[in-house]
Amino acid sequence: MNFLIELKNVSVTYKNGVDALNDVSLKIKDGEFAFVVGESGAGKSTLIRLLTREVKADERADVKSVIKVNGFDLIKMKQRDVHKLRRTIGFVFQNFMLIDSMTVYDNVAFVLRCIDAPTKYIRKRVPQVIGLLGLQEKINRYPGELSGGEQQRVALARALVNNPQLIIADEPTGNLDPRTSVEIVKLLKEINDRGTTVLMVTHEHELVRRVGGRLINIRKGQISFDDLI
Ligand code: ADP
Fold first, then answer.
1. What residues does 29 pair with on adjacent strands?
2. Where in the chain is the domain with CATH 3.40.50.300?
3. Which of 69, 110, 182, 223 has its CA 20 to 30 A from that of 200?
C-alpha cells in the first residue's frame, strides 16, 4: 500500500504554549480525495503547515513521531531541501493568489519558469492545462477580468501544471457562491480521478455532504472522526 501522507504520533506546540495538534496519526493513500473539516482554531491550518514543513513537530525523547509526505521524511529533512518537497505539491487558496499584472497564461507559466522548465515544454504544457480547466477562451485575460470561479480555475491550472502528486486546497470555495463552489469541487474530483491525491480543507459541511468522500474532522488538535460519508 502506497501512502502519500503518513503521520504517526505527531504533536505541534507553538512557542506561546498553544497545543495545536495533539498526538495525531493519519494515513492518506496515493489517489485518495479527503476533506478536512473542523471549527476555527481546531488545528486544520497547523496540519497543512506541518505537511508543507512550515511548522515542525514537537521533538520528545519518549515519542517517535513520523511525518512522511510524497516520499519525503519531514522529520529528517534539512531546511535547504524543503523546496524539493513543495515542488511535489500543488496549492490552491481561498483568495486565489493570482498575480494581477499577469495574464492567465503567464500566471500558469510562471510556476514552470520558476523551476527553469524548457521554453518548448512550457509552450506546450500551459495551454494544455488551461484547456483542461476549460479556460482556453480566457488565456490572454487578466485575473481582474474574470469571475471568482474562473479565477479559482486558473489557480487550479497553476496548481496542476507541474504534475504534483498532491494538491492541497485550503478553503478553495471560501470566496465563491454555492453553485460555483460545487463546480470547483467537481473539478478537484476530476483532477483526482486522473490520479492526483487531493486534500481539501473546508468549513462547508453542506458541500462535503453533497459531494461525499473521506471526511477527516479535527477537533481541539485531534482527529475526532475519519471515515467515508
Ligand atoms: P484552524 O486552521 O482549524 O482554524 P489553527 O491550526 O490555525 O486552526 O490553530 C490551532 C490553534 O493554534 C489555535 O488555538 C490557534 O490560536 C493556535 N495558533 C495557530 N497559529 C499559531 C501561531 N503561529 N502561534 C501561536 N498559536 C497559533
1. 3
2. 3-88+164-228
3. 110
Q: What is the pTM of this model?
A: 0.95
Residue to mutate (ligand 1; options 46, 50, 200; most atoms within 8 A of CB): 46
Scan for cell 513521531, then name that residue.
65
Q: Copy the grid coordinates of residue 182.
A: 460545487
Atom of ligand 1 nearest to the CA of 39: 3
* pLDDT value at residue 71: 96
How high is the pLDDT of residue 1? 64
Written as nine digits, the cell of 103 is 495574464
- Chain centre distance of CA 167: 4
**Class of 3-88+164-228 in CATH:** alpha beta
Separation of CA 123 and ligand 1 centre (Å): 41
Ligand 1: distance of its center to the CA of 197 in Å? Answer: 25
Where helices occur in 69-166 by DSSP H, the ranges are: 82-86, 104-114, 119-132, 148-160
Averaged pLDDT in 10-residue chunks for the chain of 229 residues: 93 97 98 96 97 96 96 97 97 97 98 96 98 97 98 98 97 95 95 96 90 94 96
What are the cell numbers at 186?
Answer: 467537481
